[in-house]
Amino acid sequence: MLVTARILPLAALLLAGCTVGPDYAPPQTAVAPEWVEGGIPGEVDLEWWRGFGDPQLTALIERAFAEGPDLAEATARLAEARANRDAAAGGRLPAVSATGSATENILSEEGQLPVGQIPGFERDFPLFDLGFDASWEIDLWGRRTREVEAAEARADAARAGRREVMLTLAAEVARNYLDLRAAQADTATLEALAETDAEAERLTRLRVAAGEDPHDALDRAAAAAQASDAAVAAAQAQATAAAYRIAVLVGSHPEDMAPLLSRPAPLPAGPQVIAAGIRSDLLTRRPDVRTAERRLAAATADIGVATADLFPRFSLLGSIGQQARSVDDLFTDGATRLQVGPSLSWPIFAGGTIRARIRAADARAKAAAAVYEKAVLTALADSETALNRFATAQAAADAQAAALERQESALALARLRAASGETDRLALAQSRRAMLNHARAATDARRERAQAAVALFKALGGGWRDPPET
What we know:
Blueprint: H1 2-15, H2 55-67, H3 69-90, E1 95-106, E2 124-138, H4 143-209, H5 215-250, H6 254-261, H7 282-285, H8 287-307, E3 313-324, E4 336-345, H9 353-419, H10 425-459
């Protein structure tokens, strides 16, 4: 009991230690308050896909969240990080284990202890032992504290990584869905164009036979008809490929997804106006920036873990149990054993490895700081680029729509002139061909505007919800 009385004051002294290594503080990044590209103020829509007004798109994104393999992997990574965090926290508590053994022992007669010459001492004997061992490493230099800090930061990083997967997943499903609907619309337009070119080829053949057109006019008409037929097949292939890519994203087999998406549907227009929010809020909303910041926090804590190796480790050890040569004597008072006391471990010489590990941890922290700085710059550049792209795509789509409207008016006039005999059917076919080409350009412009909207929402950090803590 005298030893125990001396241990308790020592334990109190050790508990008053310090935490080595740098204390982490989040980087303070100055961001200009105004968008360069004139972002519209307002709350960023976190469920932006609903603004496209397409129930099937919404259903596909929700299915990807529920069944997609990418998000399943990210969720598992988050669970792993949280388990590692709990393991690190558990390392700060005392460890207790139960022990038990039953052994048959034979001592050497030629060893240091001359057992053969000791009266009544048998060299072979059984030994039974039952008890409990306990140990507690006192966190004198903050090693365990820093380990918990690092594990907590990595769990936060995994959580932000899951958000980033959700954001990317929603954008990829939407992007491929828009490609699918645009390809289906293009297919329909190309089929009409192929019919028009076939009719133009037939009419040109008649004119060549009548001597009204040269033979090379027929070659040009035939080549245009063949090109239109090939374009139809290419557009159909693009639609099928987009459906297969969506199948991967939502965790479905291609043969199950293709029939679901094979029926043509209108290309979603997307929102005409997108709120960009406050520019400085972008850094807290973008999950990739949050991931980089949390990894910097973990790397900073790792410096403290490595630094603690320079100092001695103090532990309190204890063991209590029963030990006897026979089972009958195992639970008697005289069979009780007890061991308690402090333990010290101090690496006096390690060949410079400890300080090398500290330098390595410091270098990793500097690298993590550079990664964070790049993530901030990338977030700002992505957002400004997406704002510019959306505005440009909006203007281009409006211009293409106006051009198509004018071409449709021209086609209507050509039909009236053909009906009155003022122009021939070949001229009408050519006017219809020009209108269909404008229709294709208008579809592509609408697809680009919708794609630009998706890219803007992704750049602004919209498209995720916090997962429940489990």
